[in-house]
Amino acid sequence: MIKVLPPLKPHIPEPPAGKVWHIAPAGHCLWLDDYEYYDQLGRDPLQQAKLWTLPSGKKRVDKLQEILERYPKQKHRRRILCEAARRGDVNLVRCLVETGLRVHPSTDPDQGQDSTQNESESIPDVDEPTVTPVHAAANQGHLSCVKVFIEEAKVEADARDELGCTPLIVAYERPEVVRYLLGQGAEPMIRAIGKEDRATTPSAQYTGPSILDYAASSGKVEVVKMIMEHPSFQSSTDWFTPSIIQRAARGGVEILTLFLEKGGYPLPNSDGKFQVESLSEEQKKVVFDATPVAADQGDLESLKLLLCYNKKAGHDNLSTADIPDEWHKKFIYGLYNSMTTNSPRKFEFLNSIGLKEHESMSLDKLPDGQKINVQRLLEKAVEAGSIECTNLMIEKYGANPDKHRIPPGIRPLFIGALRDTAEMLRYLLENHDIDIHFGNGRHASGPTALWGAINLKSLDSIMVLLQHGGPVDRVDEELRNVKQPTRAILRGTWPSTGSRPMVFLQTEEHAKEYTEWTRQVWQNQNPRYVRLELDVDDNEWLRGLQLRKENGELRETGNGARELNEQEGDSLGSQGAHDVRNLMPPMPTVMDREAELKEDDDLIPEFRPYAIAPGYHDRLTGNPEVY
Q: Residue 390 half-sphere exposure, CB side, CA atoms within 13 Å?
């Protein structure tokens, strides 16, 4: 059975003993920020020592003790502690606490400043309010680390970070941490710094969100109930604000019902009817403002509950006349978000109203006869891996699973490959007639779904696409009939002018020169290949791999046709500044995923030089990734 593995780790050269690397033309911007802590590659002390690659806790502690000998300053040790807390390494956390380090910094930016601190070249050892280890541990749910901070380091349970948040507030998604902190005396009614709060505002008067606000928005029923059972909540009325109902409208009907009941709102009688007339004017305003929030981000039951307070509309047989103008956009957003959350019932309910989406909702024009862009809805469902909604869009509303809009010029299969929704790809390929050769983006010979999956390391999707034909541009003949466990390289090439992005399937030996080259380019953490482990069981799909169609077969004609490649587009000339095809990128991608792949958290960050010399990025000559 095929295994798809990420690329080999980069080879980061080590300088001779007692020396450091100098990076030309410019070192990493982090080095410029603190040259004592970071090296010119941007690595922190833990990355420089490759501590996170060590397999055992004892070895990591031993390595940490070596590191601490070179980093005596409190601010540097606190950064190391914060990283250990974020990762939940309790052995490292305890080791650092036992050094006597003051775990929590002062959140006063002026505290500890020394007027003589710039007389030497040394980095001032002053507190950094942004580095709060206990908050890092609480937010990530690392209870064992939180216990060390509270019980051994004696950090206050209500210690605040620079935003005024306590560990309890940032732990709103971690019930076990919330329970522990409440048991340690954490105050649940504390608020963070609000937008209107000034620097002189006392912390007790902050107006920002509390843990209750965050837990309500995220649907954490267990956390909300814990807070509501606390004596501080039961003796306070400050928690009830108009915004808390809006937040609860996002979190699900159970949470919304809890807050409405606690806030004195009438709930359905035994016959299911509401005493709407008992609502105050203020309550009516709160419900009115919360209803579009539920339509946009809440579940169907929350929306219906809030609509029942609207005496005119209720929630049965709604029409466009029942929807105020202020609600319109949020209701349209709700149609699209139904695809993201795989909520076909909510979609059907909202769609039955008959609202028409606004012009700025989609890049392409709304098709004739449609009030909502069905094809784009399908793309949203595919992106989220929402198979029920995908099936609904195709079977009931006529969306085409093998069609692209102009713009953006990408098909559902490509979208699913970029987001690694592997089961969605399997559904599309096994239930619909999908062209796996289609070129996505600006040009007709653009990248295939397989190329996009390789680029963004969508490992599960790569496996599905290979098992359904690929396609590839070249395949080593030795891989057409595997007789024993074999390693291979699946790589994508970046197109040069006049060419197209290609996919090569090569034996490990054949691709060795290429993979070794990529390991030397430590500035690029996302080389365009993956490793495959193959066995005799893979021969069936290996023999079924398709070679990608020639350019002549990919060429498009008719209205909205794309040029074959960049060179052809240049020769034909521009169609004008308002040509919608100009909105289509030649190599579509997902920027947040690209950003994740640009660094190796264990070894080295994304390389961001503090200055860039002319021509620094012009490094294509001799680059084997360009074909």
A: 24
Q: How many CB atoms lie within 10 A of CB 381?
A: 32
Residue 160's nearest CA partner among 112, 204, 115 is 204
Q: How far apart (Å, rounded) are the C-alpha atoms in residues 283 and 28?
A: 54
* Cβ contacts of 377 within 8 Å, gap of 6 or more: 335, 336, 339, 347, 389, 393, 397, 399
pLDDT digits (tens, 9 = 90+) for 406-435: 999 999 999 999 999 999 999 999 999 999
Span 277-297, pLDDT tens digits: 788 999 999 999 999 999 999
Alpha helices in 72-188 (DSSP H): 74-87, 90-97, 133-140, 143-147, 167-170, 175-183
CA geometry: angle 24, 25, 26, nearest 5 deg: 90
pLDDT, tens digit (0-9, with 9 covering 90-100), for 508-563: 999 999 999 999 998 889 999 999 999 999 999 999 999 999 999 999 999 889 99
Show me where the domains of the chain are located. 1-27+436-627, 44-108+126-155
The CB density around residue 196, as the number of other CB atoms within 10 Å, is 8
C-alpha distances out from residue 154 to 9, 140, 535, Å = 40, 20, 56
Q: Express as a percent the part of the chain with pLDDT over 70.
A: 92
Alpha carbon of residue 440 to chain centroid: 23
CA dist., res. 189 & res. 194, Å (int): 14
Which residues have CB under 8 Å from 154's CB, separation 6+? none
Strand partners, 529: 491
Alpha-carbon distance of 166 to 160, in angstroms, equals 5
